[in-house]
Design goal:
Elements: H1 10-14, E1 27-31, E2 47-55, E3 58-62, E4 65-69, E5 73-77, E6 83-87, E7 95-102, H2 103-110, E8 128-130, H3 133-151, H4 157-172, H5 187-201, H6 217-224, H7 228-239, H8 243-261, H9 266-272, H10 278-289, H11 293-298
Helix pairs in contact: 2-4, 3-4, 5-7, 6-7, 9-10
Length: 304
């Protein structure tokens, strides 16, 4: 199994940019069978997910760890941690529920609790929790209530859904976490694939609420819970290019897209790309293109 992305180009053609400040609350609760038996149908990188697995043979590759899920379990994933979901069974053998929701909805549900301290957010946190019979009944009831509330016409159902989601998250924090299984056989390819996936997750930029942009190799190493020297060595070994070269290339591509396809102010673009000052962004852009961001935007045939 290869962990490297097979095609890193489509987002350059399909990226869309809403007006700065635009946001939309999103939440969906469905059965695993309706979601076509796994997380692949819920693979939007801007969404968080909680899955209640009732039956099935699955494996979760979460950052640098892998978890065998062969019994009832709660599984948490989010857009900031690269993961892969593998199912060893056909659709009919998969049973459970998936709750997929936006970052802004999560902030409201957590009611002031830092996302960085939640089980959903930390790369070195605990994404999998096995359940006993009593816990399974409790969480099954919670997901059934969420599905019922989603289908209702109750005027305040959003608040009910937020409360249920918050309860699931907080109750999970009290459970003993599952232990990670064997590490991937090709460690260099695995860590490089995770880095490149995390780089993809950072883009495209939108006006929605988001965490600070990862700007340096150390930022990515911290997110992946590995030493920066280890990350640099593995990325260089697999791709022949430095971690910083990959980051700068992607930042530059995103800057060109934002300059060409949005009317965002230069200060807003610099901020979204993680530059503390507009002058720093201008210097970075000019160093790599020999022109200023403003001149690039005004060019009649700017190429992205």
């Amino acid at each position: 199994m290869s962990y490297l992305p097979t095609d890193t180009s489509p987002f350059f053609q399909t990226a869309t940019y809403p007006p700065l400040g635009a946001a939309a609350r999103q939440l969906e609760v469905v059965t695993m069978q309706k979601a076509r038996c796994g997380m692949d149908q819920f693979s939007r990188h801007d969404m968080f997910k909680v899955m209640l697995v009732l039956a099935g043979q699955n494996e979760l590759h979460y950052a640098t760890r892998s978890f065998v899920i062969d019994r009832p379990a709660l599984v948490f994933t989010n857009r900031l941690i690269p993961y892969a979901w593998e199912s060893a069974e056909v659709a009919a053998d998969q049973q459970g529920h998936i709750c997929c929701f936006s970052e802004s909805f999560l902030h409201a549900a957590m009611r002031g609790v830092s996302l960085r301290d939640s089980v959903l957010y930390k790369v070195d946190g605990n994404p999998v929790y096995y359940l006993d019979a009593g816990q399974l009944r409790y969480f099954s009831d919670a997901f059934e209530r969420m599905r019922r509330d989603m289908a209702s016409d109750y005027a305040h159902k959003d608040e009910l859904l937020r409360n249920q989601l918050s309860i699931i998250i907080h109750e999970a924090a009290h459970l003993p976490p599952a232990a990670a299984q064997h590490p991937p056989t090709n460690a260099a390819e695995r860590i490089t694939g995770l880095f490149l996936s995390l780089l993809e997750i950072e883009f495209p930029m939108t006006g929605e609420l988001r965490e600070p942009v990862l700007r340096s190799a150390r930022d990515y190493a911290d997110r992946l819970a590995v030493h920066v020297n280890h990350l640099n060595a593995k990325v260089k070994e697999v791709t022949g290019r430095s971690t910083t070269a990959h980051i700068n290339e992607r930042l530059l591509a995103e800057a060109k897209l934002l300059l060409t396809h949005t009317d965002w102010a230069m200060a807003d673009i610099a901020d979204r790309l993680g530059f503390e000052y507009t002058s720093y962004f201008t210097s970075f852009f000019k160093k790599h293109t020999a022109t200023t961001p403003l001149a690039f935007r005004r060019a009649p045939l700017a190429v992205t």
